[in-house]
Specification:
Low-confidence stretches of chain A: 1-32
Helix content of chain A: under 10%
Radius of gyration of chain A: 29 Å
Distance between the termini of chain A: 108 Å
Mean pLDDT of chain A: 91
Structural class of chain A: mainly beta
Shape of chain A: globular
Distance between the termini of chain B: 53 Å
Largest sheet of chain B: 8 strands, antiparallel
Helix content of chain B: under 10%
Number of helices of chain B: 3
Oligomer: heterodimer
Number of strands of chain A: 33
Number of helices of chain A: 2
Mean pLDDT of chain B: 89
Strand content of chain B: 35-45%
Radius of gyration of chain B: 22 Å
Shape of chain B: globular
Amino acid sequence: MNPIELKSSQLTILAGLLLMFTALGCERSVDGLEEPDYPANPDVFINGFSGGLEYFPFEDSRQDAFSVDNEDTHDNTEASMRFDVPNEGDPSGAYAGAIFRDENGGRNLTSFNALTFYAKGTKAGTINEIGFGQDFFGNEFEVALNDLKLTTNWRKYTVPIPDASNLTSEQGMLWYAEGPEDGDGYSFWLDEVKYENLPGLAQPRPAIMNGNEETQTSFIGSATSVSGLTFTANQEDGVDVTVSAAPAYYSFNSSNTDVATVDDNGRVSVLGEGTAEITASLDGLDADGALIIESLGDFTPAPTPDEDPSNVISIFSDAYENEPVDFYNGFYEPFQTTTSNDFVVDGNNVLGYENFNFVGIEFNQDVPTIDASEMTHLRMDIFFPDEIPDNSALTINLVDFGADASFGGGDDSEVSSTLRPTTNPALVSGEWISVDFDISGLANRSTLGQIVLDSDSGAGLQGATLYVDNIYLYDSSAEAE
Amino acid sequence: MYTLNELMKNDLQLYLLIFLAAFVLTGCGTENETEEESYTDIVWQDEFDTDGPVDSDRWIFDIGTGEEIFGQPGWGNNEQQYYTDNPENIRVEDGMLQITARNETVENSSYTSAKILTRGTFETTYGRFEARIQLPFGQGIWPAFWLLGDDSDGNETWPQIGEIDIMEYRGQEPTVIHGSVHGPGYSAGQAVTDRYTISNGRFDTEFHVFAIEWGPDSIKYFVDDVMYNEITPDDVNGEWVFNDNSFYIILNVAVGGTFVGSPSPQTPFPQTMLVDYVRVYKE
């Protein structure tokens, strides 16, 4: 065998390898089993796709919104990612959106702290959502930067990773969703899309409930979820960037598991009477904000309706199939104070209205109006947990939108019924009030569009909490037959 | 396997090996901190090694809004904090001085913080003044490590007494610090100043050493042994007041004020400046 001669270049390589080893040796110790080694390849799209990446557009999006652009690139590289957002009404899809998934089993992203890219638009559009962790396999570690503001010049953007130690085999390398801007489509580009470990990205601050302390009134058997999960980091230029993050990044805790428990996905189950504070942490950092569960104990469900389903048009009830609605709370600005705290107790859905002054339930915008020509009554079960002042009045308004099937236009008509502590049925607290409201006085009820509850006739209920269940229209004459 | 002799084909390879050996030997160590060799004699220091309040033999406090001392609040800069000596605002813990700015209302101020000085306990002319500090962050946070000249029992006033700002920092610029001098004809907005931007890091996530080396007609500014500026009498638009007066050390965290602007609703509180040590060397 010939003696092996190393050239100095080879020796340099050897030296480099040895150096690498030495450097690694300082940081890591081998202890026991190792996870399968997924590549730590940081590249998503530099001069083209990195190996193994596949494009999966969202089902209802414009399927060909994405293309590789060899003309308009950042820093005159070979290629960029181009996205064509459709106009409103485009038959090819209502929006642009896709995931880019690693089909080789995933990447090890644990050594990075951010997804970064350059972007620009044909106009200063706002990308609704862009991030990583959507893989169509459960999206366990999904992260989204909401409302990314584009400029018409290339600019670098950073999407921080909340806790990269989770991303040992991440497949969802990039995802986005963007709709038309004021009805108009436009185009935007991404380039040099990659994962980085930015030394200037720091001061991690996780939050739940968007950093607020929120109190929810609940009952034994009710369920709710921790929401508003965000992660904020401070960039090198001193500007904060906040992303929304999946529950899997957080550890949740309940201060009183006799009252409420919380699972790994942030789902809260109320088990007893009392108060429990749900908090969270991320990578050892306490999250700002808390969900405070005030459980009033056992919930008395509303009486189960006994009308024959064939004589019923239901708007909100677990006993019937409900007509579609636009919403159960319109959050009308600026005068409405009513907030919603809908809840589920033992599988029974209940509308919860808090800070009441008035609230509207609508079925006329994106859903058909309701034809109740054959119906004679509006039924509604209402519960006031707190004491009812003498000057209270609750008015129920049922509005027909007339021939134009929309609000206003001179053809609307309505019928109202007002409950007071002195009426029959009376406004009482602590028990369900079943309202059977005769609507036959409303001549035209073939294009019903809205139910409004208000406190205009008696200020006593302003700020009150009420629960509503079993809202439906029925035909009382059919019942009598 | 090959022997060393086989590998050493020429000098280049030998050098490479030596280079490599040096790396392997030092690879795990921290960087060597090379002090300027001329400043070897420590004449004053606080290592902040005893938990509890700051050492009253070394430091005094400024308390209040500035109105108590200067007749009007804001310390001349529209600063918004009320300085206290409460442990919530200043204490020594885990080998560090901790000065903490809080958003709590005291005496009509929306924030509290702390400021300590060596006035009357240690004042000197010339030397290397250095401190190892991890800074806080956030819009409107203004920490500083600085020197003021003695006022000869009130016979002289600022800016004639002289001011040397070894380190000032805007919480909203986590990679930038400022070093300045103020004197007659070059004070406040006309101060002689330079900024230093750190690459590959931030001042609020790790400790950095801020220093000046001050001698006759010269003040050199350092961050982590990088000299980024030297100010001499040629640079100032007025009398050089740094050759005869003696100066004392100040550490503080201000909130708001003309240099940084007000905190924003997003500024996280509390914010703490950690000081590992303050040392003064003479040649």
